[in-house]
Write a structure and sequence with these properties.
heterodimer; A: about 120 residues; seven-stranded mixed β-sheet; four-stranded antiparallel β-sheet; about 0% helix; B: mainly beta; globular
């Protein structure tokens, strides 16, 4: 059974940093693209970034709203995905979901499986 | 960026109704369109990818159609467990973008 479990959320002051993790199980982690998607309170879904798989040299993509502040990484030896968030702003307050990339026709959607999410609150 | 516009933003329907939600892309995305269902306090759940391919384990009452810029999600015989918010997502190009969501409520 595919499982994704996020951790690391919490309260942080504006300008601060936080590192989220996503523990994966039930599938061959190194084969898959992985995404982060967030949802501000009462709002819709926003894709924020992706790390490709080993075969595609772990390259990354970011949304403009987080580029230069957030960094995705993965540790295939530990089946884990990470999101390092720096220079946090109040508008980064959201539930952060990790999702496994789903493959279709040479493209990947985010995602075919999702974690339960972890809440990040940026406030003074 | 490709903008995704869903309509309506909300709708009320009776149990047993057939419901259709529309998603329009600001430019052609072929069939690189996915649909998700989200219930309050829960993570999104994948329903459909490739505009019309049903995710494993999703009941056939859900169906999707469309290509290019215009897409629809249809839910047949609405049941209490189907009341939720539905999102479309394009994955033709980066950044991946979602529609604003359609909240399906009980009438």
């Amino acid at each position: 059974e595919v499982q994704l479990v996020e951790s690391g959320g919490g309260l942080v002051q504006p300008g601060g940093s936080l590192r989220l993790s996503c523990a994966a199980s039930g599938f061959t982690f190194s084969d898959h693209y992985m995404d982060w998607v967030r949802q501000a309170p009462g709002k819709g879904l926003e894709w924020i970034g992706r790390t490709r798989n080993k075969a595609n040299t772990y390259t990354t993509e970011y949304a403009a709203s987080v580029k230069g502040r957030f960094t995705l990484s993965r540790d295939d030896s530990k089946n884990s995905l990470h999101l390092q968030m720096n220079s946090l702003k109040t508008e980064d307050t959201a539930v952060y979901y990790c999702a496994r990339g789903g493959f279709h026709g040479g493209h990947y959607y985010a995602g075919d499986y999702w974690g339960q999410g972890t809440l990040v609150t940026v406030s003074s | 960026d490709i903008q995704m516009t869903q309509s309506p933003s909300s709708l009320s329907a009776y149990v047993g109704d057939r419901v259709t939600i529309t998603c329009r892309a600001s430019q052609g995305i072929s069939n690189y369109l996915a649909w998700f269902q989200q219930k309050p306090g829960k993570a999104p759940k994948s329903l459909i990818y490739g505009a019309s391919s049903l995710q494993s384990g999703v009941p056939s009452k859900f169906s999707g159609s469309g290509s290019g810029t215009d897409f629809t999600l249809t839910i047949d015989s609405l049941q209490p467990e189907d009341f939720a918010t539905y999102y479309c997502q394009q994955y033709k190009s980066y950044p991946l973008t979602f529609g604003g969501g359609t909240k399906v409520e009980i009438k």
